[in-house]
Amino acid sequence: MTNDENSAAMPASAGPKAVNAGPARKAIARGAAKPLASVKPRRASAIGVPAAGALTPAASSAGPPLSVTPELLERISRAEYHAPHAVLGAHLEDEGEATVRVLRPLAHAVTVLTGAGRTVMEHEYGGVWVAVVPVAHTGHVPDYRIETTYLDGAPRILDDPYRHPPTLGELELHLIATGKHANPGEVLGSRVRHYHSELGDSDGTSFALWEPRAQAIRVIGSFNHWDGTHHAMRALGRTGVWELFIPGVGVGAVYKYQIHETDGTWRETLDPMAPAVTDSPATGSVVE
């Protein structure tokens, strides 16, 4: 079963441990706290991509993007979909191309940066932007970064959380789902990780929470101004585990989870597996 076949069902895909770059995927129908960490934009040259002025536009003969229904895009725009990776991120097409979608509600312009060049994205729906990029190696999603320009005019280049595969493997998920994992704290909670890819290294933190009755979960924290719109987690199979890797988040970041209940309400909760929390009144879990 492919990653997206799993993630399109409720819940999303259980997959291999994270690797260097995003997986090839088919799109669905169409005490005191430590210093706060933040998602830091990086210059293009710092991630192995030429600076914006030096990177040429990618070939413009791309076909149309893989289609997604307006109803699903609406759920993605509200960060209420249990399988955001099935829509966001890069998804292979049949013609040697890949459709890339990102959620940037307040962006003025968004561009995909790949080894082939720059591809300007188009606003599709409710803050969702889309582009079709060339695939250099058949069957493999190209490594990419996202350049976002807001009204202040300063472009910001970041890695995309939705290009990364799950950070828990099938055995770990099975043991958690059946209550047989000897130490679930080893795989749940937050973990600082480091990855290598064609366009440069990526550092960040993976978040994993067991919440089997949730309809959707977002990560909120000091790194996203406590707005989880950009950081909806995916459900991994029918295990009750939700997961997301967020590039740029490091040690000392303070966070919580927003959980979408079956009655439609949202509640905030600390991470039960976090080794540390901040002092009241502004309580939060801390990445260590």
TrEMBL record:
Region of interest (Disordered), ranges: 1-23
Positions of the Glycoside hydrolase family 13 N-terminal domain: 197-274
Domain called 1,4-alpha-glucan branching enzyme GlgB N-terminal: residue spans: 71-162
TM annotation in the entry: none
InterPro entries documented for this protein: GlgB_N, GlgB_N_E_set_prok, Glyco_hydro_13_N, Ig-like_fold, Ig_E-set
Single GO MF annotation: hydrolase activity, hydrolyzing O-glycosyl compounds
One of the Pfam families matching this protein, by short name: CBM_48
Any one GO BP annotation for this protein: glycogen biosynthetic process
Cellular component GO terms, alphabetical: cytosol
Full protein name: 1,4-alpha-glucan branching enzyme
Organism expressing this protein natively: Paeniglutamicibacter cryotolerans
